[in-house]
Amino acid sequence: MEGFKIKEYGRTELALLYSPSLTPDAAWRRLKRWIFLFPGLTEQLEAKGYCHHQRSFTPAQVKLIVDALGEP
């Protein structure tokens, strides 16, 4: 099995990689909370073009999340 790849992910798709035992909605809520609670991560994501309405993360945004939270 290959390791985690930095690529574009749907927000729920990425959330489920971090919390596979949760429902899609609960996994997304958890990931969103982790992003908000990690110091400076929200600001870094916004600097890379993130908007709370977007449905997917760009590879650059995924890299920021993985650098902050670790690989799923």
Q: Report strand order across the widest sheet.
A: 1-2
Point out poorly predicted stretches. Answer: none
User: How much beta, percentage-wise?
Assistant: 5-15%
Major β-sheet, in short? 2 strands, antiparallel
- How much is the radius of gyration in Å? 11 Å
Helix/strand structural class: mainly alpha
Q: What is the string of helix and strand elements?
A: EHHHEH
Distance between the termini: 14 Å
Q: What is the number of helical segments per DSSP (H or I, 4+ residues)? A: 4
Helical content stands at 55-70%
Gross geometry: globular
Q: Taking all residues together, what is the mean pLDDT?
A: 96
- Total strand count, please? 2
Strand-helix topology:
Elements: E1 9-10, H1 11-18, H2 24-37, H3 41-47, E2 56-57, H4 59-69
Antiparallel strand pairs: 1-2
Helix pairs in contact: 1-2
